Amino acid sequence: MAIIVQKYGGTSVGDVERIKKVAERIKSYRDDGHQMVVVVSARSGVTNELIARAEAITPLPSEREMDQLLAVGEQETIALTAIALQAIGVPAISYTGAQAGILTDKAHTKARIHSIDATRLKTDLNAGNVIILAGFQGISPEGQTTTLGRGGSDLSAIAIASAIKADKCEIYTDVDGVYTADPRIVKTARKIEEISYDEMLELASAGSKVMQNRSVEFAKKYDVVFEVRSSFNYNPGTIVKEEVASMEKVVVRGVAVDKNQSKVVITNLADKPGSAAKVFRALADAHIVVDMIVQNAGSNGVANLTFTAPANEVSKATRALEPVLKELGGSISSQDQVAKLSVVGVGMKTHSGVAATLFQSLADSGVNIDLISTSEIKITVSIAQAKADEAARAVHTAFGLDKA
Amino acid sequence: MAIIVQKYGGTSVGDVERIKKVAERIKSYRDDGHQMVVVVSARSGVTNELIARAEAITPLPSEREMDQLLAVGEQETIALTAIALQAIGVPAISYTGAQAGILTDKAHTKARIHSIDATRLKTDLNAGNVIILAGFQGISPEGQTTTLGRGGSDLSAIAIASAIKADKCEIYTDVDGVYTADPRIVKTARKIEEISYDEMLELASAGSKVMQNRSVEFAKKYDVVFEVRSSFNYNPGTIVKEEVASMEKVVVRGVAVDKNQSKVVITNLADKPGSAAKVFRALADAHIVVDMIVQNAGSNGVANLTFTAPANEVSKATRALEPVLKELGGSISSQDQVAKLSVVGVGMKTHSGVAATLFQSLADSGVNIDLISTSEIKITVSIAQAKADEAARAVHTAFGLDKA
């Protein structure tokens, strides 16, 4: 007898047949005596269709009207899901974001949840109804429809779980959970049973994206334990929660590879205070996400600055840096076919030798290391893209992550 | 400088190109200095698609969830229409029924408008915005999404026109207005410039359906003058308003024909108080709309009762009457291929001889009259379906309705 929040993504509710399957799954939980609040996304493809219609009118539709438009996708799914539950004898009531009292700020298309008044939802829940809640949307203090941006439905689920003090929060996706490595590359990869918020965040930023970071950060902030699992089977998934002492026994939780990187090198940059700031301000203004940064102070008053960025953003980065280099001197060059390989684990905080093990296993595989960067629970190296898969397998074995 | 409410139906906003055309039309009015409130329907076909999806889950989806589902159609159109206006430089804001404060009762799928709190809408309107309002939908006192049933968008337009005391209300459809007869049958039919609410209602119930009667009744009750016109050209349409003295100069406003009728005859029904009531209660319970009713009291304590009904409802009517006839005696027979022909005009109240002229013109055309029924401003006869077109032309000419 628990209060359970479940979230189903666009693929899980992609058509009427899948919606019926989701309804059966919800029913099986309710038959076990649980109170259910279910967050659903728009059917996969619907949001893109709506965007395409708006962009057929004008390339830059207003954000207020885009929110009014996009909220339609989830509103359709909640009604169909509630109907599917009623059809198999389960009382269900659908809620739009506004009806559920999900109050946001007024930043259209990327609103932040401010508070949730779940009074009415709780009343309907306690009366024995399954609540079907539209993900991704809310209402501003002025009564406008708002949407939460990418990953918004996960955020809705975690926020409502926090608001109603749910006992469990399950995020259903098309993967079985979080793995020690990408199973398509590393055949011996295992599903991780439990992972800390910080490890999940670091794995995501290292290229293993199961969820948007903002949802994980929100869960961490409000201490919402959640499980990532598949809607296509009944296998247990991965539980994401606050770090506990036992987690530190595992030195490395997982290995992540991002093969879609390029390296940008600026040579002979004027070596004076503010140079680096100007470079990265220009990149930030162009909305380019820069990851590894290495600077070698040179002689003769010049320095070399290197960073990695997604491969498809390098030309944009080069353009953005032109005026800066005109001012500071220096020349720019880039190299594609670069991969990032990261090992992540809260155990690193208390175990030494992780870097040594990593570097040794790469050396044993004949993989040359280019850049190195570290955080408290992550070590990342950049290597040649062609060697990335082989390196991931070697590192996975070296840290004892292979299946028993 | 007037406040104008316009309503565009599903065909007028059927795709992105048509929505852009509607935006251009709205702009032309605004450029003339008018304040514009525009009610739009769902794109044609969308509502049926949504219903089909729900019915693929269950044949009887709950009405509460159907309202949540169907409201999606108009919500998409309002956003796209607002975006199309903004794209041509016109400030526009979309409103769902709930956002516009259209408060209804809680009779899902057929809600009645209770009141409209247009405060916020008026503020946005006075600030120079075009308001795009979702037709067909409202909000119940409990905050539920409601829809108004068939013809609901017309009703939304007339209700908002009343609430904001609009100077004009234009209902755009795919016809040019109300005609003296169906132009496909009577080539000499003319567009009617002005018509009274009562004439419009009688023409509709006689088979010339341009709008649902409830919208016309609402307009009559709240004295909202409106114009029915085409969104595909700039021709003036037909103005519908309260009867004025000059209207009575025209004895017959129009001729309507409904060719899709059947006649049902019950013979040897027990002639005692309550017999007819039982017959028509059984028909009403089966939701069969009965029109002309004629009873001849016979001898020997039995009577004959005749009525007309839509042809496709005769077998349902026969089934519904079986238990009644078992109780009261009598036998039932039906005749299809029946047409109703009606002449309508407020002038009838003050002119005599309308019936004589009607019957004479039918006699001259060799058309036999079966049943006759009359109201204060309408005379209806039932005739053979095969003679209906010819009869309509003869009667149209006899009452001087042909084009000059």
CATH architecture of the largest domain in chain A: 3-Layer(aba) Sandwich
Within CATH, the superfamily of the largest domain in chain A carries the name Acetylglutamate kinase-like
Query: How much helix is in the residues of chain A?
Result: 25-40%
Overall average pLDDT of chain A:
93
The total beta strand count of chain A reads 18
Enter the CATH topology name of the largest domain in chain A: Carbamate kinase
Would you tell me the structural class of the helices and strands of chain A?
A: alpha/beta
- Could you tell me which chain pair has the largest interface and how many residues each side has? A-B, 38 and 37 residues
Largest sheet of chain A: 8 strands, mixed
Strand order of the largest sheet of chain A: 3-6-2-1-9-11-12-10
User: Which segments of chain A are poorly predicted (pLDDT under 50) over 5 or more consecutive residues?
Assistant: none
Please count the helical segments of chain A.
Answer: 11
Number of structural units classed as domains of chain A? 2
Any idea what the radius of gyration of chain A is?
24 Å
β-strand percent of chain A reads: 25-35%
Q: Class of the largest domain in chain A in CATH? A: Alpha Beta
The SSE string of chain A, one letter per element, is EHEHHEEEHEEEHEEHHEEEHEEHEHEEH
Please state the overall shape of chain A, judged from the principal axes of the Cα atoms: globular
Q: What's the N-to-C terminus distance of chain A? A: 35 Å
Oligomer: homodimer
